[in-house]
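Field notebook, page 125. I keep forgetting to write these up properly, so this time I am using the form the group agreed on. The chain and the ligand, zinc ion, are recorded exactly as supplied. Prediction of the bound pose follows.
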Amino acid sequence: MHELSVISQIVETVIDEAKKNNAKHVDAVQLVIGELAFLGVEQLEFCYQVLSEKEPLLAGSKLETEIESARVKCSSCGHEGGIDRVEDPIDHMMLPRLACPECGSSTAITAGSGCTIKNIIIVLE
Ligand SMILES: [Zn+2]
């Protein structure tokens, strides 16, 4: 499960940061998830629950998530914007369309494809 490996890395990072800051406990971890990161929020929260309970520093802490909208930039005409979604005629899934709406060239994703820790809320005493 992809979410489990993502969360185990996040838990490691949070523990490192908490120790560096002499935290007694971690209250909450705020995570920003890109809409193109293909991560399920419910699965992330479930994995966090399972892994954090094993860590004294993290036990009982909350995972707070927010979704970051994806943005793309066209390398040909410089157009920047959000992504359109088109329905796949075979799977009937909504897929992001990565062609530039202005000129049809392919675009590069500039935001919304990752998963990053925004903030760690710690208790110092
Ligand atoms: Zn373009």
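OBSERVATIONS:
- The pocket of zinc ion is lined by residues 74, 76-77, 79, 100, 102-103, 105 (CB under 6 Å).
- The mean pLDDT is 93.
FOLLOW-UP: compare against the apo run.
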